[in-house]
Amino acid sequence: MFGPEGPGLRELAVQVLSSVDRGYDLLAPKFDHTPFRTPDSVLDATASALRRTGPFDAGLDLCCGTGAGVGVLRRVCRGSVTGVDFSAGMLAVARERTRAAGPPVAWVRADARALPFRPVFDLVVSFGAFGHFLPRELPGLFAQVRSVLRPGGRFVFPVVAPPRPGSLEYVMLLGFDAVMRVRNAVWRPPFVMYYRAFRFGAVRRELARAGFRVELQVLPEFGRRRDGSPRVRLIVAERPEGEGVGISHPCP
């Protein structure tokens, strides 16, 4: 799973026994050499889908990490691009890697559950971050995203079809989540990372409850499963036109 440039077992153990933000501060220098980074194939397919409906003006990468999703925004946004994350270490790596690679990016340290922005974005994207939010936190998270979008703005993220029950991948993810639950029951601070907590049906319902108009787009680059269902979908949640805009709450 990890190449020679990735973290060792001891480094991963220290990370997972830390808080989420401290853990990612420690992992940041080697994060792009782990399987936790969103693959370029998913980023490229998302950018291609967004080009068909764009261009957009201002874009925000929610929980940006080391900035992989910012690269997508730079391809489809003709205005400003912002990355927000709560890990200072991840932001430092992102800032360094994009310093000499095109137009400047605004990097903001903040909690996604309390975004410090007015409704100024036309596009919000996020890649691989939702396992850090418990199901009960999704309504507040989606409300925050909606509050920083202009009317007509879109919240877009890819969703991979879940593994079939009984498959090796299913068993591995089930085991990982079980280990995390045991760890959080006996160790503080908690480290929230659950691969099976972000359920497709529940996500659609919570987006609709938050006031989004939700549609699904198939990413054809990844083909279909044996039952004909797509392997990867893009969720496109639009804040309807004709609404007034409110002011989001600043970070504490």
UniProtKB/TrEMBL annotation:
Signal peptide: none annotated. Residues 60-153 form the Methyltransferase domain. InterPro entries: Methyltransf_25, SAM-dependent_MTases_sf. The keyword Transferase applies. Keywords: Methyltransferase, Transferase. The keyword Oxidoreductase does not apply. Its EC number is 2.1.-.-. PANTHER family: 2-METHOXY-6-POLYPRENYL-1,4-BENZOQUINOL METHYLASE, MITOCHONDRIAL, METHYLTRANSFERASE. This is Class I SAM-dependent methyltransferase. It comes from Streptomyces fimbriatus.
